[in-house]
Amino acid sequence: MTKAISRMAGALFAGAFAGAVMAQADYPTKPVRLIIPFAPGGPSDIIGRLVGQKLGDYLGQSVVADNRGAAGGIVGFELGARATPDGYTLLLGSAGGLTMNPSLYLKLPYDPQRDYTPITQLTVGPNLMCIHPSVAAKTVQDFIALAKAKPGQLNFASAGTGNRLASEMLRIAAGINIVNVPYKGTGQAIGDLVGGQVQMMMINPVAAIPQVKGGKLRGLAVTSLKRASIMPEIPTVAESGVPGFEYSSWHAILAPANTPAPITKQLYADLLKVLASPDVKERFASQGLDTVGTTPDAFRTVIREETIKLAKLIKEVGIKAE
User: Fold this and answer.
1) Are residues 46 and 38 in contact, defined by beta-carbon separation less than 8 angstroms?
2) pLDDT reading at 15 higher than 70
3) Labelling 45: which of 8, 18, 91, 109 has CA 20 to 30 A away?
4) What tens digit of pLDDT does each residue of 231-243 get?
């Protein structure tokens, strides 16, 4: 009797295993949901919808955008973490949600390093260090020298935690005393920078370039390790005398933890094709972004190392969730 039960159990297990393998082999057989943890119309939404549309072409099924922008994106990240790991729910992740939030919130309802299967990093983009033209500085080193000569007299605008951290990182790395002036919105912060009420701000290049070209702001350097393709004439902060300085934003695609490896491998291969598309590269470039396409393991390392780096910075600065 016991042997018969064992044979029956083995047969049931084998049947279930074969069914799971067959389901993975046929993936996808229905539309895929892409959770975008931000409101429609913003940069993340633009990136997510473009990548989703292209990915759907390769998968042979629609990739449906699902915007969940509540609570600063936390709701969307939690939905992605709790979804069934079958390949039919994906998440558009961001640097803030994956590497910054763990140090800002005591009770984050998801764990970036436990609850997701990394697929690939899609983009990377810098901030542009801008100053008002009245500031007597033509280079980053000029600005640092001026700040050291006038401690506490120069200030910088910030609109959100991520935007502030880039300036705080410069303050610490250069050993200067510059004062944060927080704003609720980027538009108001840039407006006051143009008006001369504040002296410096780290700005998304797309928002800054028109002001720089119009002579209303002076762009000193980009915060990435490499020069930005959208403004190759502007040096990096690192090559401007602050070695190793890097602060970038990025977007990525992830799946819930324990998504089967055959599915994640297929998604990774198809996303590489998406990122190689000339129209995708061009659209990203228009947003001040470069395409990436890291392997899942390399992307996992990025999340881990950047989380450690930002945790140290956030603790040193004493920033709390806004």
Assistant:
1) no
2) no
3) 109
4) 899 999 999 999 9
d(CA 208, CA 182): 18
What CATH number should be reported for the domain whose range is 128-240?
A: 3.40.190.10
The pLDDT confidence band at residue 286, using thresholds 50, 70 and 90, is: confident
> Taking CA 291 as the corner, what is the angle to CA 208 and CA 71, rounded to the nearest 5 degrees?
65
Q: Candidates 3.40.190.150, 3.20.20.70, 3.30.465.10, 3.30.70.2740; correct CATH number of 31-125+248-317?
A: 3.40.190.150
Task: Determine the length of the chain.
Answer: 322
Q: First-to-last CA distance in the chain?
A: 64
